[in-house]
Design goal:
The chain has about 500 residues and is α/β, with parallel strands linked by helices. The chain is built from 15 helices and 16 strands. The protein binds pyridoxal-5'-phosphate (PLP).
């Protein structure tokens, strides 16, 4: 630790050395530069570093303990206290702070503008106690098979730790890629392990695809509404988004066809199965038409297949990738919803020559995804623990989804409509035209219920009178009460005289 000490010979004009050390450490603690519980340097060590007597440092430490800044443990040393007294104001910097704004890249500026725009229109409050929140969209952590995963992880570290804690090839752990090839066969996807690249979640998949295929000024056609994080990645690489509306459960293929007469997008992004936010799936016939259309126009498709396993009732048709003879579909999958999102583990399936490019981009971005975690997930799958967990998640999600649909039918005022979610974890509600979901959210939170305003899922505005309800994180026993509160909020908002007149706006997504 470096402590600037005033050692001027005139002792009347400076603080004693011990006091200077004490004050310096107090400031480090109060400004959280030294966190609670951190061990302070041994007195001998600090005395040597500062060139002072050891008893001087010991005196400073005694004062820190006496003042409640630190606690001493005999034989172990002195530690920063868990609760510290008062915050000491940080000294004003002598020179002006370096201004980074002029240095930000175009991409950073786009990202910042996007973040500001999001803040301005869709502030989902942190769930407060007593608020039933349909906002999150995260899996329910109380269902996580953490103990089973810990046991598998321990075994992997014991048996393969030496090899897997080393640097590793970017393509990924071969047994996991082989396992994934078998796993994807269940959905009708025939893929060889060399066509699979392991990535840090779908999010990295979008990023690698964007940096490999997009240049600033390119267009990306995207179904609307859509997954905001995917939109943000494409925008960050300078692309402009061309929204394509949804019809009957999926991207409106004929609309896209007309769009292609005027525009030449570089990619089309879609979620044909268990779409977020609507929970809808595209029909087999529409999938075939989309693949054929894109084949004719040589337009690559990014197929986000993130939740193909979570479906309720009828099994969705096979992924677009299964009908892709020429290799223009890039399929991106993830373990986030079927296991743990915190693993950051996903995969890209694409033509071998593209996988090679994506692998190079990944190598540059982060060298590789944690091999230890890849191996643990592989063994977890091989022991059929994932199948067991998945069955439980599907059962529980189906109960919640059914309870939500029943509560909506029972409680919602006539005129409010919603998508009949067939998969995933959410559905989209369409309010009365002219009713604003952001304003409604403030009133809803006061009544003890929260949701995500729908405009976050729309390209540059639109969807103001929609909201997303996510059912993955709410116990089934709270769903009816939550929807009762929401319906009351909507009725109340309808009665408010200052509400703008109902506009004759078409619904944001067609109702099924
Ligand atoms: C449409 C969509 N794609 C992908 C993901 C998962 O992303 P990741 O694998 O990065 O956790 C989500 C998560 O909510 C999603 O909604």
């Amino acid at each position: 630790m470096k402590i600037p000490l005033d050692r001027s010979p005139d002792r009347t004009r400076r603080q004693p050395i011990a006091r200077q050390i004490q004050r310096h450490v107090e400031r480090l603690i109060s400004q959280r530069l030294l966190a609670p519980g951190v061990k302070l340097p041994a007195t001998r060590e600090l005395a040597r570093d500062l060139g002072v007597n050891r008893t001087t440092v010991a005196l400073a430490y005694d004062e820190l303990v006496a003042g409640g800044w630190a606690r001493a443990h005999v034989g172990q040393g002195t530690f920063v206290a868990d609760q510290v007294p008062v915050e000491i104001e940080a000294p004003r910097p002598e020179s002006p702070r370096f201004d980074w704004t002029g240095f930000l890249s175009k991409s950073a500026q786009v990202i910042a503008a996007d973040a500001r725009r999001r803040l301005s229109y869709s502030q989902v409050p942190q769930p407060a106690p007593g608020v039933i929140s349909f906002a999150g969209g995260m899996p329910d952590a109380s269902l996580f098979p953490t103990d089973a995963f810990r046991r598998v992880l321990n075994r992997v570290i014991r048996d393969e730790g030496r090899e897997l804690l080393q640097y590793y090839p970017a393509r990924g752990y071969p047994p996991l890629r082989e396992h994934l090839a078998g796993y994807l066969l269940r959905f009708g996807l025939e893929v060889r392990p060399e066509e699979i690249l392991i990535v840090n979640g779908s999010q990295q998949g979008f990023d690698l695809v964007a940096r490999t295929l997009l240049d600033p000024g390119d267009f990306v056609a995207i179904e609307q509404p859509s997954y905001p994080r995917a939109m943000r990645v494409f925008r960050a690489y300078g692309a402009q988004l061309l929204p394509v509306p949804m019809v009957a459960g999926g991207l409106h293929v004929e609309y896209l066809e007309r769009l292609l007469e005027r525009q030449s997008p570089k990619l089309v992004y879609c979620q044909p199965t268990a779409h977020n936010p609507t929970g809808l799936s595209m029909s087999a016939a529409a999938r075939q038409r989309l693949v054929d259309l894109c084949g004719r126009h040589r337009l690559p498709i990014v197929e986000d297949g993130f939740d193909g396993t979570l479906f309720y009732g009828e099994r969705p048709p096979a992924p677009l990738k299964s009908q892709d003879a020429s290799g223009l579909v890039i399929y991106i999958g993830t373990f986030s919803k079927i296991l743990f999102p915190g693993l950051r583990l996903g995969w890209i399936v694409a033509a071998p020559e593209l996988i090679e490019r994506l692998e190079t981009a990944k190598d540059l971005a982060d060298i590789h995804t944690s091999p230890i975690l890849q191996a643990a997930v592989f063994h977890f799958c091989r022991q059929r623990l994932l199948d067991r967990h998945q069955a439980r998640v599907v059962r529980e999600s189906a109960r919640r989804r059914n309870a939500l649909l029943a509560a909506l039918s029972r409680r919602m005022p006539t005129g409010v409509t919603w998508t009949e979610s067939q998969g995933g974890f959410s559905l989209l509600v369409t309010l009365f035209p002219g009713m604003n979901a952001v304003t409604l959210l403030e009133q809803a939170v006061q009544r003890g219920v929260a949701f995500s305003p729908g405009n976050a899922f729309f390209v540059d505005g639109g969807g103001e009178h929609t909201l997303r309800l996510s059912f993955s994180g709410i116990p089934v026993t709270q769903i009816d009460e939550g929807i009762k509160r929401l319906a009351e909020t909507i009725r109340e908002a309808q009665r408010q005289p200052e509400r703008p007149a109902r506009l004759e706006e078409p619904p944001a997504v067609p109702l099924v």
